[in-house]
Amino acid sequence: MTYEEVGLTAEEFTHICDQMGRVPNDLELGLFGVLWSEHCSYKSSKNLLAWLPHDGPAVVQGPGENAGVVQLDDKVHVAFKVESHNHPSYVEPVQGAATGVGGILRDIVAMGARPVALADSLRFGTDDPSQHLQHAVVEGVGAYGNAIGIPTVTGEVGYGAVYDKNPLVNVMAVGLLPAQRKISARGARPGSYLLLVGQPTGRDGIHGASLLASQDFGEGTEHMRPTVQVGDPFMGKLLMEATLAAVETGLLDAVQDLGAAGLTSAIAELVYRSQVGAQVWLDDVPCREPHMTPYEIMLSETQERMLLIVAPHHLEAIEAIMNHWELPHRVIGEVTEEPLLVIGTRDNPRQAVLPPEILAGACPLKPVPANGRDKGRQLVPSMPAFKPLTLEREWGLNVLGAPECKSRAPIYQRYDSMILTNTVWGPDHPLAVLRVKDSTAGLAIAVRGPGRYAALDPYSGGMAAVARVISLLATQGAQPLGLTDGINAGNPDREDVFQDLMALLAGIADASQALGVPVTGGNVSLHNETSGHPIWPTAVIGAVGRHSCPLEPVPDAPMAAGMDILWVGPEDLGLGGSIFESLYSPRLTPYPRANLTQLAEVLAWVTSLARTAPGIALRTIEEGGLFVAMSRAFIKAPEKLGITVKADDPVVEWLFSEAVGQFLIFSTPESTARLLEESPKSVTVRVVGQTTLDGALQFRAHKTLHYSREELERTFAQGYRG
Amino acid sequence: MRVGVISFPGSNCDDDTLNALAALGVEGVPLWYQQTELPPVDRLILPGGFSYGDYLRSGALAAQAPIMASVEQAIATQAMPVLGICNGFQILCERGLLPGALRPNVSGEFLCTWETLRVVSVPQGFVGLKTGDLLRMPIAHHEGAFAVEPGFLSTLFDQGQVFLQYSDPDGQVHALTNPNGSVANIAGISQGSVTGLMPHPERAMAQYLGSVDGRRFLKAWLGEEDQ
């Protein structure tokens, strides 16, 4: 076997030989190949991720573990993370998406947390095959989440021709654990057993991480189909229950789930983090097929497997739990004092002998230029702004009916959003609000990944992705506890793609720093390009916030006639990156850059309003701009209510700009005066309209645009057909 | 009052059901499918979920589980009140304890929505429900299209076995209010002391979760007048 065959470069191979002091044998080389793949090593992104703030008052566990953990209150902690399954979902959409859900749920379980929620962020192309792909991906997400019994409580979807052959499937999972529970991949002690639990190991998913997810697509991906794993949510449910029951006993040293690169990654990470070694007996690994080679056993990505580390005198108790759940399980090795990972059979015990600190800790990282972070900030593309001079009634309907703006019900109704009975606000709201049964506090969960905003100015897009989720939390007065980042981009070996990636990360880092919210972990998916066409750099950001009144969310629509409507927003309202622009402009222009200092003040004020102002409703302005936000608030309001708005100049920008930091506030006239008085000086707030009893939505500009409830409801539900 | 809640491998609404019972001040007794004898319980619930991953056919494998023989016997000898919710309903049909079968939704897709249910005939033992009452409860299933053999539908209606129909918010039952392709919009049926329904009462226990009608439903099944 050569280093190229396992996906390594000549430099990396030399580095391995230098570090080892010898040439690795074939099995060892194969293990290096997967662990030093982009997917497992983060070699191109790790130095960029170091820019992100990781510390905060609520952070219990930052990046580097299976998931981040933050503190909800004294008794309850929250584990959460986003993960992508982009490449597998293109090759085999149902199973690719399903195993993505299974994988992120196992990450949460490996932290000793019981999953309580899923959120999906999907990107599809605009061609015909993309519609079939979407149908199958949604089927896959639902098939796993519904069957294992974890609700999909919120999500988002977006479209662009750049995703035609590179759909994005990012799923975030959130779990809860008691504050005193401490289980991770760090506690393995010498003498303890490696207990492999779950599905017997098969020949599925070999090279899933190293070849499928770490290379670009070219002509024909058919031959890659066998590299996609097959999910079994039934086994996943048993494994989840059994693992959580085992963790609850307090008898385990450590837990590590098996995901990308299977046993290789699980054992290497475990012994590396625990600073121990291990002897693995391949003849004891339960296999689905006879005659599997050591290489196949170590690289298989068979799903629904978990590695439990248990001291010999506790083995019986743990095995009893596995027997109750009827899960196959077997001791496949033991933890050793000497930090060496030794893999073999009883006949030939030392077929691979590798120091974990080289295997899991010595992959050379792509260097980042010293001015890398600044460079992203400075790269402001200059293009003439799109400024339409007329205003047509039809524009509003066309924007509201656009795939990004219209109702997501055809997707989220295929997901169980209510199981576990915590969902106070589900997917028909812009963010989810969940009660937590063991706490008076609840969870606010939001996910956004505005790829179009990053298309021309990735720095601006990165900032916006963070700003969008924090804005959503602000409308509920929720305290952001942490963020998880799902980075999706093209081939990092291309200079232009890497520049974009740097700018994107700089934007995320600057925004999360300015807004004071730590990033506690996430996922990087690179090589999202087919035949040399990369996707827009797409940062999917998930946020978890502490909601102090989860049973009474702040309404997102007006409740009565006679309420004032206030608009909050920045002075610069460009149409760059907006849905309106994508429909009516011959070309895309850069997304308006946020002023982070001002944004932080707006968010602080909106958060305090949501917590203290009585009888208000709040909504952020997102895709489709003010027009869509107002329409959605109108559709949600009681049937007889109307809304009349006096449009500001420049009207089209004001109606359709998607610049972050824009909010709608619905307040009673009694509170409006105080609200305006108490608003910070740097924040622009204007009364722009009132709720009425005429049952229609009207915008008054130089002409009046009049929309009936029926046509807005129909357009929102079914799209606009002209 | 002690209510047994039977978990099969893959059941996933068992905890929600136990929580709902606790909220009503009723003792819920978790039962595992391998038990061959029932402990002393007054009633039984087969909760929702994906027993055996819905492999083969929803409910088909769980219907043959060891505990089901004792369930069958308790129904035959003591007229034990048994409630099947969603997958529990499918299991009861597969076991032959309720008539008919549940086929894949006509859309071919899983569906999770809020529905209005109209009471057609009140099953034996229910207290405080009457014909024409409306209940708002969610559904979440892939196989919920109730079907019966040709010619059997009128018998079901005549014998008062049709319990719930999907309706509009005003109680009108028509094709547009049929979410899944069930024959005659049927959402729930009964036979003697056995009742099955696709909607999830255990998810409609509080206004902040969308409805309190599940509370009303479960109290009616428990034989308690709702206050």
UniProtKB/TrEMBL annotation, chain A:
It holds the Pfam family AIRS_C. HAMAP family: PurL_2 (MF_00420). Its main location: cytoplasm. Substrate binds at S84, H85, N86, H87, R106, Q229, S525. Gene3D superfamilies: PurM-like C-terminal domain (3.90.650.10), PurM-like, N-terminal domain (3.30.1330.10). ATP binds at Y42, K81, D485, G522. Residues 64-176, 432-544 form the PurM-like N-terminal domain. The gene is purL. Mg(2+) 2 binds at D107, D257. The active site is at H39, H85 (proton acceptor). It is found in: Cytoplasm. The keyword Cell membrane does not apply. This is Phosphoribosylformylglycinamidine synthase subunit PurL. Residues 2-43 form the Phosphoribosylformylglycinamidine synthase linker domain. Monomer. Part of the FGAM synthase complex composed of 1 PurL, 1 PurQ and 2 PurS subunits. Part of the phosphoribosylformylglycinamidine synthase complex involved in the purines biosynthetic pathway. Catalyzes the ATP-dependent conversion of formylglycinamide ribonucleotide (FGAR) and glutamine to yield formylglycinamidine ribonucleotide (FGAM) and glutamate. The FGAM synthase complex is composed of three subunits. PurQ produces an ammonia molecule by converting glutamine to glutamate. PurL transfers the ammonia molecule to FGAR to form FGAM in an ATP-dependent manner. Belongs to the FGAMS family. It catalyses: N(2)-formyl-N(1)-(5-phospho-beta-D-ribosyl)glycinamide + L-glutamine + ATP + H2O = 2-formamido-N(1)-(5-O-phospho-beta-D-ribosyl)acetamidine + L-glutamate + ADP + phosphate + H(+). Pathway: Purine metabolism; IMP biosynthesis via de novo pathway; 5-amino-1-(5-phospho-D-ribosyl)imidazole from N(2)-formyl-N(1)-(5-phospho-D-ribosyl)glycinamide: step 1/2. Residues 189-339 form the PurM-like C-terminal domain. Keywords: ATP-binding, Cytoplasm, Ligase, Magnesium, Metal-binding, Nucleotide-binding, Purine biosynthesis.
From TrEMBL, chain B:
This is Phosphoribosylformylglycinamidine synthase subunit PurQ. Pfam families: GATase_5. Part of the phosphoribosylformylglycinamidine synthase complex involved in the purines biosynthetic pathway. Catalyzes the ATP-dependent conversion of formylglycinamide ribonucleotide (FGAR) and glutamine to yield formylglycinamidine ribonucleotide (FGAM) and glutamate. The FGAM synthase complex is composed of three subunits. PurQ produces an ammonia molecule by converting glutamine to glutamate. PurL transfers the ammonia molecule to FGAR to form FGAM in an ATP-dependent manner. InterPro entries: Class_I_gatase-like, PRibForGlyAmidine_synth_PurQ. It catalyses: N(2)-formyl-N(1)-(5-phospho-beta-D-ribosyl)glycinamide + L-glutamine + ATP + H2O = 2-formamido-N(1)-(5-O-phospho-beta-D-ribosyl)acetamidine + L-glutamate + ADP + phosphate + H(+); L-glutamine + H2O = L-glutamate + NH4(+). Its EC number is 6.3.5.3, 3.5.1.2. It is found in: Cytoplasm. The keyword Hydrolase applies. Pathway: Purine metabolism; IMP biosynthesis via de novo pathway; 5-amino-1-(5-phospho-D-ribosyl)imidazole from N(2)-formyl-N(1)-(5-phospho-D-ribosyl)glycinamide: step 1/2. Part of the FGAM synthase complex composed of 1 PurL, 1 PurQ and 2 PurS subunits. PROSITE patterns: GATASE_TYPE_1. The active site is at C86 (nucleophile), H200, E202. Keywords: ATP-binding, Cytoplasm, Glutamine amidotransferase, Hydrolase, Ligase, Nucleotide-binding, Purine biosynthesis. HAMAP family: PurQ (MF_00421). It comes from Sulfobacillus thermotolerans. PANTHER family: PHOSPHORIBOSYLFORMYLGLYCINAMIDINE SYNTHASE SUBUNIT PURQ.
